[in-house]
Design brief:
The protein has 501 residues and is of the alpha/beta class. The chain folds into two domains: 118 residues, Golgi alpha-mannosidase II (Immunoglobulin-like), CATH 2.60.40.1180; 366 residues, Glycosidases (TIM Barrel, Alpha-Beta Barrel), CATH 3.20.20. The protein contains eleven helices and 25 strands. Strands 3-4-7-8-9-10-11-12 form an eight-stranded parallel barrel, surrounded by six helices. It has a seven-stranded antiparallel beta sheet with strand order 2-15-18-19-25-21-22, covered by helices on one side. A four-stranded mixed beta sheet has the order 1-20-24-23, with no helix packed on it. A hairpin with a 5-residue loop joins strand 18 and strand 19. Helix 3 crosses helix 4, helix 3 packs parallel to helix 5 and helix 8 packs parallel to helix 10. The longest helix has 22 residues. The radius of gyration is 22 Å and the shape is globular. Bound molecules: alpha-L-arabinofuranose (AHR). The site of alpha-L-arabinofuranose has 10 residues, from loops. It comes from Streptomyces lienomycini. Keywords: Carbohydrate metabolism, Glycosidase, Hydrolase. This is non-reducing end alpha-L-arabinofuranosidase.
Length: 501
């Protein structure tokens, strides 16, 4: 096969990576919270019921902003149910997932969870604009963030949290364009309530960062018109617009699935164009950034049947996709797509964190382990910090039913503050190794620190409860750097991390 090539030059950059690009998502859905992050009585649980084994994996994963409490769940959620003494917390029907919510875990427990992850973890709270509106969003903001001396801030202190939570990042509802959403709205209706909520929240604190709901997927009939209408109402009042995308192989079409990032990149570019079009119409110099606050591989067709069969159980096993090597390579490619647009995508949340379409799995009363998708995320979060270099690949291509000819190589590179560079690359070929040649210009790189790959003779290999360490990245031999030229062979269907200094 002919080599795939690109040139790296520090003069050509995309932008700084915002640490929030490595965000995640904890929703009251299935076992993400209960028996996921929170399981009082588990041998690894601390005094607050948080599983230490899960916390350790969350730290290793390297997540930053953690979106909470939903998702579809938030559109019927009453935040007051989730605070205060446990004995007073009501059990409620969760219409989104046909489950019973016990409210044993709520806002204060979530903040405690973030603190235990460490200083890199940041709260990102969605307010309910489905069944509720401006008043309840303001009450939640006052409860969470006001220092003291008002009924709601004093109530927080009475509940044991004297210090305000300091939540900066807020989502104004969730997927309000979707007919499945409790309190679903038209773009005009949502645009108005989002603008009024944003205006009022900024009166409490002008520095809050607000995310308006974009489309729940680019496949929605209203996609782009929705964004334009919502932004026309909210442009001066919000900082971000949200994007959501999930990928799976449809009808066994693995080749198109492997090129999912082609769709993700063009989705991002369409939303950027829509934001900038509205900005131009409003003669604004302000720039709206993108919050890709739900993205992942998700075998969604299976989940729809699961949910409709539920009869209000507590923490059912839902959306517990078990990911293969193939899925992890696609997820790596989606990370590359986000990094390649780091100039505009400043928040991104892998949906979700534990058990529910998640990189971390647990067994109630049993162990916690890493799915295959854990590895590309943790490596990207660890080494993808700094400035993204502009990568324009010249690659052999392959045919896909959905996207036509797609590059076999998908790649990006990030330069850290100390001058070291990490190349992230995916070989989409299912049959052949892909020779890679990278010309390094003006970067003064002389050593290869490591070339690690996630690939397997069996692309369907997975980590499971019975065999939790079946799949992990391995070192690759033969990668060379000399005379400003990096050469490597990328294994078929592989995610690669090549670190240079
Ligand atoms: O992440 C699972 C669900 O997907 C979320 O609750 C919803 O926002 C999206 O449709």
């Amino acid at each position: 096969m002919r080599a795939a090539r690109f040139t790296l030059d520090p003069a050509f950059t995309v932008g700084e990576v915002n640490p929030r690009l490595f965000g995640s998502f904890v929703e009251h859905l299935g076992r993400c919270v209960y028996t996921g992050v929170f399981e009082p009585g588990h041998p690894a649980a601390d005094a607050e019921g948080l599983r230490q084994d899960v916390l350790e994996l969350v730290r290793e994963l390297g997540v930053t902003a953690v979106r909470y409490p939903g998702g579809n769940f938030v559109s019927g959620h009453r935040w007051e149910d989730s605070v205060g003494p446990l004995r007073d917390r009501p059990r409620r029907l969760d219409l989104a997932w046909r489950s019973t919510e016990t409210n044993r875990f709520g806002l204060s427990e979530y903040i405690a969870f973030l603190k235990k992850i460490g200083p890199q973890a940041e709260p990102m709270i969605a307010v309910n604009l489905g069944t509720r509106g401006v008043a309840e969003a303001l009450a939640l903001q006052e409860y969470a963030n006001h220092p003291a001396g008002t009924a709601l801030s004093d109530l927080r202190a009475e509940h044991g949290d004297k210090d305000p939570f300091g939540i900066r990042l807020w989502c104004l509802g969730n997927e309000m364009d979707g007919p499945w959403q409790t309190g679903h709205k038209t773009a005009e209706e949502y645009g108005r309530v989002a603008a009024e909520t944003a205006r009022a929240m900024r009166r409490i604190d002008p520095d809050v960062e607000l995310v308006a709901c974009g489309s729940s997927s680019r496949a929605m009939d209203t996609f782009a018109a929705w964004e334009a209408t919502v932004l026309q109402e909210t442009y001066d009042l919000v900082d971000h617009i949200s994007l959501h995308a999930y990928y799976e192989p449809h009808d066994g079409d693995v080749d198109s699935f492997l090129a999912s990032a082609v769709d993700m990149e063009s989705f991002i570019e369409s939303v950027v164009a829509t934001c900038d079009h509205v900005g131009a119409r409003l003669k604004s110099t302000k720039r709206i950034d993108l919050s890709f606050d739900e993205w992942n591989v998700w075998y969604m067709s299976k989940a729809q049947a699961e949910v409709s069969a539920l009869d209000w159980p507590e923490a059912p096993r839902l959306l517990e996709d078990n990911y293969s090597v193939l899925d992890a390579v696609v997820l790596g490619s989606l990370l590359i797509a986000l990094l390649r647009h780091a100039d505009r995508v400043t928040v991104a949340c892998l949906a979700q964190l534990v058990n529910v379409i998640a990189p971390i799995m647990t067994e109630p009363g049993g162990p916690a382990w890493r799915q295959t998708t854990f590895f590309p995320f943790s490596q990207a979060s660890r080494y993808g910090r700094g400035e993204v270099l502009d990568v324009r690949v010249d690659s052999p291509t392959y045919g896909t039913a959905k996207y036509g000819e797609a590059d076999l190589l998908h790649a990006t590179a990030v330069r850290a503050e100390d001058g070291s560079v990490t190349v992230f690359a995916v070989n989409r070929s299912r049959t052949g190794a892909l020779p890679l040649e990278v010309a390094l210009s003006g970067l003064h790189l002389t050593d290869i620190v490591e070339h690690s790959a996630l690939a397997d003779a069996d692309p369907d290999a997975r980590n499971t409860l019975a065999d939790p360490e079946r799949v992990a990245p391995h070192p690759v031999d033969g990668t060379a750097l000399s005379g400003g030229r990096l050469t490597a062979a990328l294994e078929p269907l592989s995610w690669n991390v090549i670190r240079l200094r």
